[in-house]
Structure formats: structure tokens, C-alpha cells
Amino acid sequence: MESGAFHYCSSVLLLIISVGILLFPLMVASIGINYGQIANNLPSPEDVVPLVKSVGATKVKLYDADPRVLQAFANTGVEFIVGLGNDYLAKMKDPEKAQAWVKTNVQAFLPATNITSIFVGNEVLTFNDTTLTGSLLPAMQSVHTALVNLGLDKQVAVTTAHSLAILETSYPPSAGAFRPDLTACINQLLSFHAKTGSPFLINAYPFFAYKANPKQVPLDFVLFQPNSGIVDPSTNLRYDNMLIAQIDAVYAALASAGYKKLPVHISETGWPSRGDEDEAGATPENAKKYNGNLFKLMKKKGTPMRPSSDLNIYVFALFNENMKPGPTSERNYGLFKPDGTPVYSLGIATNEGVSNATSFGGPTPESSGMPNTMPESSSTGYLSISSSSPERYHLGVGPAFFFIMSMVIRLVLY
Ligand SMILES: *[C@@H]1O[C@H](CO)[C@@H](O)[C@H](O)[C@H]1NC(C)=O
Ligand SMILES: *[C@@H]1O[C@H](CO)[C@@H](O)[C@H](O)[C@H]1NC(C)=O
Ligand SMILES: *[C@@H]1O[C@H](CO)[C@@H](O)[C@H](O)[C@H]1NC(C)=O
């Protein structure tokens, strides 16, 4: 009897283990999320831990190094990218200041909170501010040197996040190229990445392309819905959504700069659930499709150009942030409302069942008036249409589709 029960148990255990092993490749999905805090009504960081877990996210990107958040996530297994805002760059050129910052904001939380990277500056190059741009690499170098001195450089990487607008060309993906006026600066950054082994981060928003030209840009192509896709005429690779095409454009730009092996991570992408009247596509239905499909995509691997690469994607964003300036969409990228309820159902199965947030007791007054030292921007990557010479490649498809895609291309490019 006892022995029978034992056998039964051990078989069940074996079954669980084998199923676990079989399912493992599906479960290693690493879902990242941006935790922006430009708001005065967000729940306390302790209450955010279950929310992050409810969507199955294992990686969180902060725009600062908020000690309350880093403390709240201690021993949760969640990995962190912490940020150093653009207004810190000039100061961080000083190696002593960089070392003091790393000690206080990174070293103090390790190893309980798993900080794996520091991103120095957000979308710096596309501000066209020569002083700011000139401080970027020296700041990254000081921060890296500080990590070396503290013996942390093997576990904490140093990088920066770019807007997709650093590309001059992004279509077809194989023609991806950096803006010529930025190439000297980018080449130095790329050399830094290659030497220190850190990834190249890009913020990419197919929403901007759609919003700028909703009549021409096929909605299904930007929302990862079934559609006929496009074929890159020089590689014959097929793309069925704009985000992956944008990632490959970055890979192509890196390859032509001589950095074929550098990994690309998507540090921000998302879709707003509300917008102004002139912001076509900003609806809960579209946001649900974009982000729901994105969560499914994050469980897969690779792009047509880099099939075995990891897709490292950070969704923007965890919360609607009521104090962000700009159009209405800027305050409505969140998966969650400040009270912790979902803005829409993502419809995804996660570790903890179907995503459904627990509710919070409303806004937490103690978090109001919190300083927002970090300029956070998802709008600086805005891609507007500009007059440009007609595209000259041939897609090998019908003229209407060619027209549509050439519009898409312009949107993506300029
Ligand atoms: C932190 O994250 C890295 C990257 O995934 C992982 O290799 C490492 O084991 C983690 N460290 C801890 C203490 O969990
Ligand atoms: C920066 O310069 C580029 C290239 O000259 C231009 O296309 C872009 O609009 C400028 N961006 C800003 C924010 O001024
Ligand atoms: C999700 O929450 C809503 C109310 O907030 C509730 O009606 C629904 O039953 C919940 N669904 C799941 C799967 O827990």
C-alpha cells in the first residue's frame, strides 16, 4: 500500500518533471516591462510586485534608480535595468561622481535585487544637442569604470537607449542605416558596446507610423494581426509586422557599421489605449491587440535576419502616467490604471493564470509629489512624414500594395 502510493507519487513527480522539461522552452519567455513613474497617484512599490508578476514579467526597466522600488523587489527574482537620466550625463563624466552613484544606487541593492544593467541617457542622440551628445560616451565610460573598480562589471552592463529616429533608412529592413550625421558618434558607442559586451537598446513605436498616416499604413501589419506581410526584395525575407521589420533594420544598420554580432534589445514599445482626436488608432481595442500579440511574440525567438537571437522586449508601460506632458496618448500607454486594475484585458495566459490584476485601495497619497528627476519620453521617437525622393526598389507585388508600403516606409524612415 505504502509502496504503491510511493510509486504513484514518484510517477506523478516524474511526469511533472518531464512535462516541465518539455514545456521549458515555452516557459523561458522573458517578458520585460517599463515602470515609469511620472504620476502622482501610483500604488506603493510593494503593491506593484504582484502586478508585475501577474503579467508574467521577469524584467523591469526603471527610468531612475528609485530606492523604494529596488528595495520592494528584493529577493523576487525580477531583473532590473536602472536608468541615469539625461540631466546626469554631464555630472557622470566625473569618474568619482560616477563611482559614488554606482555605490549608492546599484551596489547597495545587490545581490538581493538583481540589477543587470544601467542605461545612461534616454534617446540622447535625437535631441540634436551637441553638448548632451558629447557627454554620452564619457558618462557611459565613467559608469563602466566604476563598475570595474567595484568588481561589478561582469554582472552589470552599461548601455543607453536610442530612438528609432537615429535611423536614416529602415525600409526595406536590409537597407537599414544610421543617420549620416550621427555615424561618427554611433561608431564610438558601438565600439564601447563591443568591448564591454553590452546590448544596443532601441525604442520603437509602430503606433507613430500608424498615427501619422492611418489611411495608408495597414493596421493589421502594425498590430501583429494576420496579414499578407511584406517581402524584403534584397533578402527575400518575409515580414508580417512592422516591429520585427524595424528590429531587423537596426540589425542591418549595425552590420553595415561593422557590428554584426551586437545584440539589439527593444527598450520600449507599446500602444496607447486613448488619444486625442487626431491620434488615430489610440483605442483600448488596438492597445489590447498590440500588447496582447506582443506578449505572445515575446515567447518566441529571433527575427528573419537573426533567427537565433533572443527577443528582448520591454513593453511601455506598466501604468498610465497622469503627469506626462504631450498629447493624451502619452498618459495612456499603461497596462494598468493607477488603482492597479487592468486598462483592458490582455487576454494572455501567464504563470499565474489569465492576466487579471488585483485591485488596490486607490491612489496612495504618500507617493504624490514624488520628484520625477528623469525626463521620460516615448514621443521623441516620433516619425513624421517628410517629402523625400520616391522609393526606387520594387516589392514584386501589386501597385496598390507598393503604394501603401512606400508610405509605410516613409513613415518609418523619416
Ligand atoms: C540575475 O540575472 C542574471 C541575468 O539573467 C542571471 O544570470 C543571474 O543568475 C541573476 N542573479 C541572481 C542572483 O538571481
Ligand atoms: C535633428 O536633426 C535631424 C537631421 O538633421 C532632423 O531630421 C530632426 O528633425 C532633428 N530633430 C530635432 C528634435 O530637432
Ligand atoms: C478579473 O477581474 C474582474 C473584475 O475586476 C472579474 O469580474 C473577473 O472575474 C476576473 N477574472 C479572472 C479570470 O480572475
Automatic annotation (TrEMBL):
GO terms for biological process: carbohydrate metabolic process. InterPro entries: GH, Glyco_hydro_17, Glyco_hydro_17_plant. The chain crosses the membrane at residues 12-35. Its EC number is 3.2.1.39. GO terms for cellular component: plasma membrane. It is an enzyme of class 3 (hydrolase). Belongs to the glycosyl hydrolase 17 family. This is glucan endo-1,3-beta-D-glucosidase. It comes from Juglans regia (English walnut). The gene is LOC108988314.
